Amino acid sequence: MDDARRALRRGVGPGESAGAEGQAGGRSGGAAPADFAPLRGADGHARPLADVEGDAIRHAVRLYAGNLSEAARRLEMGRSTLYRRLRVLGVAPD
Fold first, then answer.
1. Whole-number Cα distances in Å, 17 to 32, 46, 49, 67, 83
2. Strand partners, 46
3. How far apart are CA 43 and CA 21, in angstroms?
4. Predicted pLDDT of residue 24
5. pLDDT score at 21
6. pLDDT reported for residue 66
7. Which letter, b or e, does each residue of 36-54 get, where b requires 16 or more Cβ atoms within 10 Å of its Cβ?
8. How far apart are CA 7 and CA 43, in angstroms?
9. pTM for the full model?
10. Could you say which residues of the chain have pLDDT below 70?
11. Helix (H, G, I), strand (E, B), or coil: what is residue 12?
């Protein structure tokens, strides 16, 4: 568990190794702490997952111009799940 915490503090992304490159500061690739900014609230703490999910859903619906089938496919969820989550978010599908 301590290794995982240290890796997260260094900004090592999933599937990456915190090997010698990461420890020496010359790592290639990976997620820098700024990459996680949308996941942090104004207080600097982690945002609730429901808020992050809502932002992702709203973004996908806008990105695909209201095409909910495409948004659901790109979000890797079923259309009925997307419709249900939109209802919970208070967003009425057209």
1. 14, 23, 25, 38, 38
2. 40
3. 31
4. 44
5. 43
6. 94
7. eeeeeeeeeeebeeeeebb
8. 22
9. 0.62
10. 1-33, 93-94
11. coil
Tokens of 19: 């090997």
DSSP 77: S
* Angstrom distance (rounded) from CA 93 to CA 60: 13
Contact 50, 40 (CB under 8 A): no
Q: Structure tokens of 17?
A: 């190794």
Phi-psi region of 65 (alpha: psi -120 to 50; beta: other; left: phi over 0): left
Beta bridge partners of 40: 46
Say if CB 86 and CB 92 are below 8 A apart.
yes
